[in-house]
Specification:
9 strands, single chain, globular
């Protein structure tokens, strides 16, 4: 009888614990969601634009970047390239070539750090040099920042607000950095694709091979391409 009583009490404690943890987790999720609300934070653009935005996060593969530019030219498509400062420093000519061909350039930080673990000061120290470098290379003002790996916190948003930057996420991730299947990449980029969406890619071999199919799908389904800033109306 005593053991049965202990068992009942244990079960009650377990149920209460699960409830409390779930409730706290819910409150935490609600709180985090509220923290990250900002007029400068975008996961997609306007459906009224009739356009989707291709975004390429770049810290590598200069040759693939140049191939991507040629493919975009062939399909008369425009994209936004988020450039890592450490890569830009070694590839100034390529950065200028991207811009010369009519594409938009934003910052991807300087050293591909995890911004979700950084203070306001650390965020500023990582983002500001990348902006200054891109501005110097292109002789124009950089307006966008895409956090590496999509990792950011409220201090990242605050830093970008201080620097006059919009924070750009995505509505579709091709995960081309991990998967090598062309059909899988194309499907992630295009299945039920709608106007206003941001499609995240990287200058990988599989992306170079998948991009013509993605652009063909966009054109055949009544959509067009636009830069991120065009898609968010800025």
């Amino acid at each position: 009888m005593k053991n049965k009583f202990i068992s009942v009490i244990t079960n009650i404690v377990l149920v209460c614990t699960v409830f409390v943890v779930s409730f706290v987790g819910y409150l935490g999720a609600e709180s985090a969601s509220a923290v990250y609300k900002s007029d400068r934070l975008f996961y997609n653009g306007s459906e009224q634009s009739g356009a989707v935005s291709l975004m390429f996060n770049v810290y590598e593969s200069t040759e693939n970047v140049l191939q991507i530019l040629d493919i975009l030219d062939k399909y008369q498509a425009k994209a936004t390239f988020f450039i890592g400062g450490s890569w830009a420093d070694d590839n100034v000519d390529c950065v200028r070539e991207i811009f010369k061909r009519g594409h938009e350039i934003g910052s991807h930080g300087y050293f591909h750090k995890d911004h979700s673990k950084m203070s306001l000061k650390a965020n500023l120290e990582e983002i500001r040099p990348s902006i200054k470098l891109l501005d110097m290379i292109l002789l124009c003002e950089t307006k966008l920042f895409a956090p590496p790996s999509g990792a950011f916190n409220e201090q990242t948003v605050a830093a970008c607000e201080e620097l006059g930057l919009n924070v750009i996420m995505w509505s579709r991730d091709t995960i081309d950095w991990r998967d090598k299947d062309i059909n899988l990449i194309v499907n992630r980029a295009t299945q039920n694709l709608g106007a206003g969406e941001f499609i995240l890619m990287h200058p990988k071999d599989v992306t170079v091979n998948a991009l013509p199919q993605i652009l063909t799908y966009i054109g055949e389904n009544g959509l067009k391409t636009a830069t991120i800033s065009q898609n968010i109306g800025e």
